[in-house]
Every structure is written in C-alpha cells, then in structure tokens.
C-alpha cells in the first residue's frame, strides 16, 4: 500500500465523517462482498414509539399499561423506555415491581402487586408457558405492518399487546440500492421477530433477513456468512452488536451508537447516515486501485 493512497483515502473519508481507524480497514473496505446491517438504530432511527395498545376483552387498558410499565421502568431496553414514556403520557398511575428479571433477547419479568407480569416477545411467552389465544391473530396483523409487538402476560395469561413503531432512517433505502449497484449483497440482522423485520426489509429493498437472533448469536451469524472466505462488513450501533462487529472483516459503527460499538469497530460513521456505508466501500476501492 502506498502511504499516499492511504492518506488520500483516509482524508476523503474524514471530510465526510467516515473515520477509518487504520490502513487495513481502508483496504478491507475494497474487498467487501456482503454488508450485514443491524435493524434497530442502524437501518431505523432507534426512536421507538408506541402506536397501539390492544387488550383482551374484559381487561382494562390503563390497568394493563400500569402493570407493564411497572416492569419496563426497571429495564434498560429501548423498547421498555418507549412503553414507559407512553404510560406516562397517558398519566397511568405508577406501580412498584419486585423480583425484576431481564431475559436478554426475550423481555423481562417481575412481580407487581402480587401478580407475575411477563413483558416481551413470543419466545418469552413460550418460556412462560403462555398461550396467546385470541391475541395471536392481532399480533400477526401488527407485525405485518412493521410494528415490533410486545406481549404482556399477567399470572400466565396473555393480557395485552403493545405495538411499537421505529421509523427507517431517511436514507436507508437509498443506501441499500447503492450497495446493490456496487455488487454487494445486503443482509438484515435483528433480534426482532421475522414478520416485523421482513416488512421493514421489503420497504428498504433488502432480500435477506436473519431475524429472531439472540444477542449472543449475532457474531455466529456473521461467521456463517464469511464461510468460503467471503468478506463481510457488519454495521451496528448497540452493545449487542459489538461481538458481531469484531467478528466481521470490517466492523462499522454508527456514530450515534454506544461507546462499545464505536470502540470495537474498524470504521465509524460520524453522521450516522447509512449512505456513508457505500461511500466507505467506494473510498476503499478507489484507494486500492491507486495502489496497484
Ligand atoms: P434487537 O435490539 O436487535 O431488537 P434484542 O435482543 O435487544 O434485539 O431484543 C429482541 C426482542 O426481545 C425485541 O425485539 C423484543 O421483542 C424483546 N424484548 C427484549 N427486551 C424487552 C423488553 N424490556 N420489553 C419488551 N420486549 C423486549
Ligand atoms: Mg441496534
């Protein structure tokens, strides 16, 4: 690698807020064949908002929200924060939760005023032995619109669904189109459920979706895509994404993301703009061309 080409590439990136941490990252960017993108906070804004609350007949919405928010107030998950904000906006009275337990990739459980409350995805409900009953069809409908659906069970019975929307970033679709134009495969990787992820992927033009991935399994999914020596970049923002960023040939962190993601990555997108992913690959290709 000629030092001049590296300097030019690094400088071009820096002017656009595309920060390559070293020369190897710049060269690797040229050989990327697959870009894996985390959904929440990377392709989407990571600003979840409650859009729907559905309860089973006979259950009071305010009361259901009161129990759900009591659990979510103790969770650090972004979805939990959205639920709590919604409950507070509706002036739902507070309740105290005890024996709180966070179940990574599933949700959370606690005891609220003597009731066992579980809040999370289908996988959590399976663990809890909860049958969705008449909420199952509504859950599917909500997921088909791209909502993340949080299920709440009280004392082992499915009581409510909370639909949560997280808008795609302005330029996500364009970024996918540009990557395709560069001959690069784009894969969405997420812990969210299959139907929700599929809907958002369709809106953005992404073919391949790997959904319902547990936080600890993201790196293994990247390794799987690397089989046969295929060069893979991973773009992410969360603490959960760090092992996958490390596993990838090129780890790319969203600038607005967590410190752990930024420290682990080989490349940081300071503007948090997905369009800077194809930009980074083009800068890499330009640099390598000059080296030859
Ligand atoms: P990701 O950030 O990729 O969506 P997570 O592993 O953090 O993945 O979460 C996976 C899924 O688990 C979420 O989409 C949600 O359905 C469920 N979940 C996790 N934590 C909570 C929580 N505190 N409240 C509700 N649902 C949760
Ligand atoms: Mg994320």
TrEMBL record:
It is found in: Cell membrane. This is Copper-exporting P-type ATPase A. Belongs to the cation transport ATPase (P-type) (TC 3.A.3) family. Type IB subfamily. It comes from Streptomyces rubrolavendulae. Signal peptide: none annotated. The chain holds residues 483 to 774 of 853 of the full protein. The gene is copA_2.
């Amino acid at each position: 690698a000629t030092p001049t080409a590296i300097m030019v590439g690094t400088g071009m990136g820096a002017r656009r807020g595309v920060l390559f941490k070293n020369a190897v990252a710049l060269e690797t960017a040229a050989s990327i064949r697959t870009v894996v993108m985390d959904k929440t906070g990377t392709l989407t804004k990571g600003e979840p908002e409650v859009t729907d609350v559905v309860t089973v007949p006979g259950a009071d919405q305010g009361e259901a929200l009161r129990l759900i928010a009591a659990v979510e107030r103790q969770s650090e998950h972004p979805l939990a924060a959205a639920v709590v904000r919604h409950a507070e906006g509706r002036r739902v009275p507070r309740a105290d939760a005890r024996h709180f337990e966070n179940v990574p990739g599933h949700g959370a459980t606690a005891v609220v005023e003597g009731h066992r409350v579980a809040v999370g995805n289908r996988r959590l409900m399976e663990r809890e032995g909860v049958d969705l009953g008449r909420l199952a069809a509504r859950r599917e409908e909500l997921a088909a619109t791209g909502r993340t659906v949080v299920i709440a069970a009280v004392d082992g019975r499915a009581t409510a669904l909370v639909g949560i929307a997280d808008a795609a970033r302005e330029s996500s679709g364009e970024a996918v189109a540009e990557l395709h134009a560069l001959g690069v495969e784009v894969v969405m990787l997420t812990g969210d459920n299959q139907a929700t992820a599929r809907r958002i992927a369709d809106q953005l033009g992404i073919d391949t979706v790997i959904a319902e991935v547990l936080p600890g399994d993201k790196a293994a999914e990247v390794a799987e895509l690397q089989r046969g020596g295929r060069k893979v970049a991973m773009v992410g923002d969360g603490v959960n994404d760090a092992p996958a960023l490390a596993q990838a040939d090129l780890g790319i962190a969203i600038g607005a993301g967590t410190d752990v993601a930024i420290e682990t990555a080989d490349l940081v997108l300071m503007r948090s703009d997905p369009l800077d992913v194809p930009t980074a690959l083009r800068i890499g290709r330009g640099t390598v061309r000059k080296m030859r």
